[in-house]
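forwarding from the other thread:

> can someone predict this with magnesium ion?

sure thing
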Amino acid sequence: MHSIEVKNLRKEFGNFVAVNDISFNVNSGDIFGFLGANGAGKTTAIKMMCGILAPTSGDALVHGFSIAKDPSNVKLNIGYMSQRFSLYNDLSVVENINFFGGVYGLSGKDLEKRKDWVLEIANLKNEEKVLTGSLPGGIKQRLALGTAVIHKPKIVFLDEPTSGVDPLSRRAFWELIQNLSSEGVTVLVTTHYLEEAEYCNDIILMDAGEIIANGSSKVMKEKYLKNDILEIECSDVIAGLEILEKQNFVEETSIFGNNIHISINKNLKELNQINTLLKSSHNIDVIRVQKIVPTLEDVFIHLLEKRRNAK
Amino acid sequence: MLNRIIAISRKEVKQLLRDKRMMFVLFFFPVFLLIIFGYAVNFDVQNVRLAVQDNDHTETSRDLIKTISSSSYFQIVEYYDNDKRGKEILDEGIAKGLMIIPTDFEKNIFSAKEEVKVQILLDGVDGNSAAIIQNYSIAAITSFNKKLNKNASNKIGIKLEAPINLQSRFWFNPQLQTTIYMLPGLIALILIVTAVITVSLSLVREKERGTIEQINVSSLTIFELLLGKLFPYVIISYINAAIILLAGYILFGVVVMGSYWLLFVSTFLFLFASTAIGIFISVVSDSQQVAFTIATFASLLPATILSGFIFPIESMPVIIQWLTNVTPAKFFIIALRGIIIKGVGLSAFWDQWIYMFLFATFFMLISVVKYQQSLKKL
Ligand SMILES: Nc1ncnc2c1ncn2[C@@H]1O[C@H](COP(=O)(O)OP(=O)(O)O)[C@@H](O)[C@H]1O
Ligand SMILES: [Mg+2]
């Protein structure tokens, strides 16, 4: 069963098309990744799916309810964590929890139970009275997630929950998301950290308001990457990149950390060719050349580059 | 539903207690305004210098002059007999005002054929005290009228119908107390300023910080949100009103003549109208800075200048009289003066209730429309 079905959803701001007729489905209980650079249209799409922004045209069914015709029923079944931190910095931890619990109609024992749960997942037991504004970023985000799902919604939308958070906290945050998903909650999450796509069951990649790729991470790798990828570690990354770009066996190049990634075609007979080329003609030491399993990031860079070139 | 409204009210109170600026607006403003208007205005205008041109020279005209000069508000500095000297007196600041008693003053009063007018010319440079002097003189003439009426019916057995032209509301403030006259305006001013500023800030703050999104996505209706937010401010406003009344009683001996029940409902309608302005401001502005500026401007100015608080509406040009409807303080002050000073019942000011209600409904409606438009753009 699909818990979200999006059909030709479109949003225009004046003449500018922020979301351009996108369609996709999200399976119940999945972690669904919404990827794309800043300005791709992720937030705009999410706000429409939450029923707080009216679409220009098209529709989406969220838990079976139309966002265009029945946004109030949509709201009853979802949780939402907006891109901006949206707890009250001038309230204490427990005051925030009480407030959002109250807004979602919880009271008495139910509220107490959920409060304990939120405090636990946010690692804030015994720190209930602390002002929310003084908490570290990672903890704030966990608290925000907890309050966003305090009413146990079937579907939760998380808009860049890990942006601006240190890598360790980010990993811990994804564990929370995975826990939610294993309890049957559908999670739609946006991120501009491409590597986080690996945590998702299903992914769409957006660029300039359009979906340019979708599928599971395995499907995407197979579907979009027909060429092998080599990782090259060498003494001069920039110069190396410049030379490699000009070779006829190279399809695409990118810098990946301190290394160069290239996708190659049949013109490359053996890996040693590269060592010889860089050493002999330009005196660059090649430390390592290795065929790698492509990451999703490779896929996305490949796709985005293809699109840019087409334009 | 009630749970959700309470959750919002509780949150609002907690935020309020931690917010220095809001506390300042709520508790410093009233005290500040009370002192400024209650004391400064009250004591500034005593022993106003007045010059008199008596063209009648009769017992009645001398009696009027005596009544005026015996009050502590006026001090007669000169008697003169031509317009040229009158102009000099004002120009040179010898007196603040002139009182001109027409010829045939006494005759016309007792024949009751013609309307009798006593002219008061005021040095209008200091508009504030001019308005107050005007009020004093009208009041003095009123009390003279009363005396006259009594005498006339005693002497010649006829009852005069308000022989000298005057404004009837001063019948109700015979001791010439300005404080009692100012108090309703003061209450209105303080309530509208605090309500408009705090309400507009409290909503815009949610927009500015992005917390409004989290609220929008819950199934909370805008109705519940507004109600939950307004509740604490309404309570605070009632407390403020009670404090001003109490201060009025302790400091100036003002007592409420009419029904507290009418006072309560009138205040409620007024708060409804004031908060509606606040809500409208918060819908159209994006930052607290902007909201604070608009709110201060939109509440303080009209409530001081256009409400009839200091300057009588009747003496304004017609266009300005129309403009006075931009502030609900105008309606509230009329109702309050009725209740506090005259002690009259609802029949005397029910129309003001309707105006306030319409005013509030109008602003609420355009706020909701604007708010819904803004959701589309977000
Ligand atoms: N209210 C708005 N009015 C005009 N343009 C907007 C508005 N909101 C977003 N946009 C534009 O729409 C595009 C997509 O924005 P957004 O959905 O926030 O992207 P993302 O979340 O992927 O970073 C951006 O170019 C942004 O400037
Ligand atoms: Mg975004």
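The two ends of chain A are 38 Å apart (CA to CA). thats all i got for now
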